[in-house]
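Hi again,

Forgot to attach this to my earlier email, sorry! This is the prediction with 6-O-phosphono-beta-D-fructofuranose bound. I've pasted everything inline since the attachment limit keeps bouncing my files.
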Amino acid sequence: MGNTTRSAKITRSIGILTAGGDCPGLNAAIRAVAKSTMHHGIPVIGFLDGFRGLVENRYIPLDDRAVSGILTLGGTILGSNRDKPHKMDMGGTIMDMTDVAIANAKRLNLDCIVCLGGNGTQKNAYRLAEKGGINVITLPKTIDNDVVLTDTCFGYDTAKAIATDAIDRLHTTASSHHRIIAVEIMGHSAGWLALGAGIAGGADVILIPEIKYDIQAVAEFLNARRHSGKRFSIIAVAEGATAIGEPDDVDENDDDKPQKKNGKKKNGDSNGANGTSNNSGALPQHPIMIRESKVSRIVRELEQLTGIEARMTQLGHIQRGGTPTPTDRLLCTRLGAVAGELVAAHKYNVMVAVKGDDCIPVPLEDVSGKVRTVPIDHPWVNAARLMGTCMGDA
Ligand code: F6P
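Structure tokens for the complex follow:
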């Protein structure tokens, strides 16, 4: 028998994880990444519950059967949370679990981990690549639409449709009762969702974090509407909107805040306004402060200033539920397909960004730690003003 050495069959494989706030489209993206990667003969596993699953070595195979029928399914079959490898709550003690995450990835012989998430996930993925030579590829996911260097993020279109539908419905009841109705829309650091849904829904006032509002100016605007015969008004309020003179609305629970593009701080994947719990489900150490929501205060102040009956609605996590829109399904499929191509080409440590009809890799180091906020002279802001919408400033 010749001394032949059998060439060891080098099996490549990748992992996928979903982290940060969930959104419609995650399963469509998981499906697309897995199918595109498997198209190149590379098997795929999915880590459960974000980076925590990587640290705890909890994963499932993502074969054809596992990703069948999930294109239209909301949420994520893998589960998600906001845990960070370098600051992970392990039984009540915050520990740096980066080395464990890296060791697990290497033991599983993973070529790469594809991370689907918002700004916090982009930063955590980059940290893993920078620190431990784990190859990563990320996709831009967040209803806040505030990841830089991409035209848009998946999840945004669906959340915008949900918020717009809510504004449409609030129009009929506000009109019946001749009221001011304010609706709080998600978007802690960036106002893309309130701006997009506010314009699409024809809100009369749109308040976003990037333009601090003057409650007196808003009241005068509403009074002028009333005097002109308009008997109701709709106000779209981003949860991060702040009044002139107030500090920016930052989440006190997270001291790991990547620099916002405009120099302000932001927590990871943006967390709730009151960010009342960490991701292990444990209650926060500090007592939960019961404080009036922004939108409730705005409504109370406007009722006092105008004498017009006012009501409020907080859409909350309704904006993150349900099946993705066709636009988001198409976007996720495009992004995931390219991610699989990049895996096959060994092109790592990039985010797959939307650029017109293309999806192209951009260096993850140029994304990590930044937030895409609404420029105050953005064409959408100008369009709103041309429609006669009050943006909260005089
Ligand atoms: O990051 C998306 C987002 O929905 C933000 O708009 C919102 O402020 C936050 O997540 C809510 O976080 P959680 O789901 O952890 O309460």
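The first strand starts at residue 14 and ends at 18. The chain has two domains: 4-154+323-366, 159-255+292-321+376-386.

That should be everything now.

G.
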